[in-house]
Specification:
This protein is of the alpha/beta class and 328 residues long. The protein has helices at 24-40, 61-71, 86-97, 117-126, 144-159, 176-182, 192-199, 222-236, 239-267, 275-308, 319-327, and strands at residues 11-17, 49-54, 75-80, 103-106, 131-136, 168-175, 203-208, 315-318. The chain contains eleven helices and eight strands.
Length: 328
C-alpha cells in the first residue's frame, strides 16, 4: 500500500566501515536494490541515501566508498580523520545524517543484519514510532560460547540497572527529533544501546534472523566484546560501587566475628598456630582490596575522560557536503 506523498520522508542508512573492502561491493549491491524498491513504492523520498562512515580503515575502504558514491546515486560517505572505534563512527554518521534526513537507520556493513527488516521499521515509523529496534529472533547460528556469553551479557546488564533491549545490537531506526535530543548526550564513553532507551519517545521492535558474515573477519573479537560490555556497565550503572560497599560491610562484620572468636580463644587458652587461616585471610583481603581499587579507579578514569571534553570524532571528508558545494 503506497504512502501519501505528502508524508514521504527522507531516509539515511548509516553504515560504519572499518576494513570492509571485501564486503562493501556486495553490501552496496543489496542496499541499492532495497533503496530503489523503497523509493519506487513511495516509502522514502528520492533524496534518501546510504551513508558509509570510514572509521580510519587501513585497507582501500575509503577509496571504494568514493568510487561507489560517484557511480551510484543513492550512496555517499564521510571519512574520519583516524580510527575512533565502532561507537564513535556510528555517532559521527548519525550526527551528520540527521542534517539531511527525516529518519535514520543504522546497521553494520557485514550483511548480518537483515536488510528486509527496513520495510517493517519504516512501517512502524509511519505509524508513529520514533525509535524501532532491530532484535534478533534467535541465536541458532552462534557458537555455544557466543550464544551463552551474549545471553549472560544482557542479563547482567539488566541486573546492573542498565535499560537495554534484549538481543538488540546497533540495528535501529531513529527519527530526526530523537537524534536532535540525542545530540545533547555529551559523554565520551559511548554505549549507544543504553543511551537511546533513556531518550524516551514511542518505540517498538522488529524481529529478524541474523545471517552469517558475508566476507572478512569480525571486528568484535572476545577481547573487544568484554571491553564493550565493561564500558556499558561502568557508563550507565553505579551498582558495582554499591556492591563493593555491601561486600565491604559483610567482610567487616565477618572480621569482627573472627576477632571476637580469637579473643575468646586466647582467654580460654585454646589458641593454635593458625598460620593457614592468617595467610588465607591476608591473600583474600588483599585480593578484595585490589579488585575494589580497580573498579573505583575505572570510574575515576571515566570521570577524567569526560571532564576533558575532547571531540569524540573528527570528520576529514564529507562527500555529501562536497556534492552540495559543487551543485551551488
Amino acid at each position: 500500500m503506497k504512502k501519501d506523498t505528502k508524508k514521504i520522508k527522507t531516509l539515511y542508512i548509516v553504515v560504519p566501515c572499518y576494513n570492509e573492502e571485501e564486503v562493501l561491493n556486495e553490501t552496496t549491491k543489496r542496499l541499492e536494490e532495497k533503496m530503489k524498491k523503497l523509493v519506487k513504492s513511495n516509502k522514502i523520498s528520492d533524496d534518501s541515501r546510504v551513508m558509509y562512515v570510514n572509521d580510519g580503515s587501513k585497507d582501500k575502504t575509503w577509496e571504494l566508498i568514493e568510487k561507489i558514491s560517484k557511480e551510484h546515486k543513492y550512496f555517499t560517505g564521510i571519512c574520519l580523520s583516524r580510527n575512533r572505534g565502532h561507537q564513535n563512527a556510528l555517532l559521527a554518521g548519525l550526527m551528520t545524517a540527521k542534517e539531511y534526513a527525516d529518519v535514520v537507520i543504522s546497521m553494520d556493513a557485514d550483511l548480518q543484519d537483515d536488510i528486509n527488516a527496513v520495510d517493517e521499521m519504516l512501517e512502524k515509523y509511519y505509524d508513529g514510532c520514533d525509535i524501532v529496534y532491530g532484535v534478533r529472533s534467535a541465536r541458532k547460528k552462534d557458537s555455544w560460547f557466543k550464544k551463552h556469553t551474549a545471553q549472560a551479557f544482557y542479563k547482567f546488564m539488566k541486573k546492573m540497572g542498565v535499560d537495554i533491549v534484549y538481543n538488540h545490537a546497533d540495528y535501529r531506526l531513529t527519527s530526526k527529533r530523537v537524534l536532535n535530543n540525542f545530540a545533547d548526550y555529551k559523554e565520551v564513553n559511548l554505549f549507544l544501546r543504553g543511551i537511546f532507551p533513556l531518550i524516551g519517545y514511542k518505540s517498538d521492535v522488529v524481529y529478524y534472523e541474523r545471517s552469517e558474515r558475508f566476507a572478512g573477519e569480525s571486528k568484535y573479537p572476545l577481547k573487544k566484546m568484554l571491553n564493550f560490555a565493561w564500558d556499558g556497565i561502568t557508563s550507565f550503572s553505579v551498582k558495582p560501587i554499591r556492591l563493593l560497599l555491601t561486600f565491604g560491610i559483610i567482610i567487616f562484620i565477618v572480621s569482627m566475628l573472627v576477632t571476637l572468636y580469637c579473643i575468646i580463644a586466647k582467654l580460654t587458652g585454646n589458641t593454635i598456630a593458625g598460620w593457614t587461616f592468617l595467610a588465607c585471610s591476608i591473600w583474600i583481603m588483599g585480593g578484595i582490596q585490589m579488585i575494589s581499587l580497580g573498579i573505583i579507579g575505572e570510574y575515576i578514569g571515566k570521570t577524567y575522560s569526560e571532564t576533558k571534553r575532547r571531540p569524540r570524532y573528527v570528520i576529514s571528508r564529507n562527500l555529501k557536503e562536497e556534492e552540495n558545494e559543487k551543485d551551488n
